[in-house]
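Hi D.,

Good news: the full-assembly prediction came through. Inputs first.
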Amino acid sequence: MKRAVVLLSGGLDSTTTLAICRADGFESYALSFRYGQRHEREVPAARKIAKSLGAKEHRIARIDLRVFAGSALTAEIEVPKARSAPEMARGIPVTYVPARNTIFLSYALAWAEVLGATDIFIGTNAIDYSGYPDCRPEFIRAFEKLANLATRAGVEEGACFQVRAPLISLSKAEIIRRGISLGVDYSLTHSCYDPTSTGLACGACDSCQLRLKGFREAGLVDPIVYAT
Amino acid sequence: MKRAVVLLSGGLDSTTTLAICRADGFESYALSFRYGQRHEREVPAARKIAKSLGAKEHRIARIDLRVFAGSALTAEIEVPKARSAPEMARGIPVTYVPARNTIFLSYALAWAEVLGATDIFIGTNAIDYSGYPDCRPEFIRAFEKLANLATRAGVEEGACFQVRAPLISLSKAEIIRRGISLGVDYSLTHSCYDPTSTGLACGACDSCQLRLKGFREAGLVDPIVYAT
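Then the structure:
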């Protein structure tokens, strides 16, 4: 069975991606991060998801992204709430974490190399998303090129790394339908950037709004509980 | 004054690079890592060096690279000693840490973006080096391309990131001569992969051997103390 590393935040997109990875016949190695995110609640969610979707291993790397701050997700900057669709479409929001996906993919690459894997799955999406630059197809392609030049596997063994982003051109509703068809239990997932102290999703941040819109458009009810 | 982020391990190459960064007129922001390296002694060395070379700030990010192991520098794998030059030339050694420079540069990119800097200095060298794939010019160029696609600065502000590797085509002797001319105090630097419990350099690992050869070829005496 071919191995693949899957970046698993514990949110809706990465969970669906893990289910796709398995359905594509890979033995999946899930990787999560504690990076000082205000919504660290996603990490225990990821642990349950990895188990429920039969990941072969799940590792959680503790890394420090607060060292530079610069984002509403890692510093004392307010998470924007109840933004309209045109507001969301206007540029990259303060929840952008500088170079986050570059850092996450670099770690995935390191683990892939140790495992002898050449496939890395990431749940980035460039349709119903927050406009983050490191979610776009051209970023993913550039990382693949880098990966082949950066590693012993690429240089000595001619390994050709593939960064698979199966959700990149799907709408949120399509992602949810795909996940449901693969048996994903979305009640386990956590998407909110700014949960309440008891762990409930706020329902108003960009991430909650995109998620709720997705379920609405898919004609389904989101199984998680919202604070509002 | 233009800002630049400098990757500073505390070794001979990165120290010289910091001196060059300053001589080139940049305000320098030095970045080091505790990543579970067996030679963590390099981190306090980096602290003294950053101070002595007038870095504006020095940050130390604590990140976990032991989570995947895979290298003699982060796992219980023996560091090779007393290898001959032809042995060293034969492929990538076990001291290679998977994706390390990709991870380090990703962090440097994150900090650069927060600082509004577009220049990143790295002390990689492709002449007197250990054959690591992520030290070569093609790797550096691929990372620059990625950086421009990965960041808000690159996408929204048209920033053009430059990864400067001023040592890349110098011999170790040339690096040392350059550093001396810039006032570098090499007694502060630590290069050994496998120091003794009291912090002395072993004199036999690849890194010690390349360093000693450099000083010899430069007609200078290495000011640090060796165990043998």
